[in-house]
Amino acid sequence: MLRSLSALALLLTASLASGGVGDERFLTAKGNEIHDAKGRTVLLRGVNLGGWLVIEPWMSPVDSSGTIKCDYSVRETLAKRFGEQTANSLLETYQKNWITEKDLDKIAAQGMNVVRIPFWYRNVQTEDGAWIPGGLKRLDWAVSEAWKRGIYSIIDFHGVPGGQSKGDSTGRKREKAEFWHSDAHQQRTVEIWRKVAEHYKGNPAVAAYDLINEPAEAPSLGALWSAYDLLYREIRKVDPDHIITVEGCATGQIGGKYVHWGWEALPAPDLFGWKNVLYQIHHYEWDWKSEEKQISSVNFQVSEWNKHKKLGVPAFMGEFNPMGMESAWKHALKEYSASGMHWTFWSYKANHGTGSNSWGLYNPVKKDAPNLLTDSAETIRAKWQALDTETSYALNPMLDRVLKGVLKQDPSATAGTSPVSSNP
Question: Tell me: domain 24-414, CATH 3.90.1510.10, correct?
Answer without folding.
Answer: no
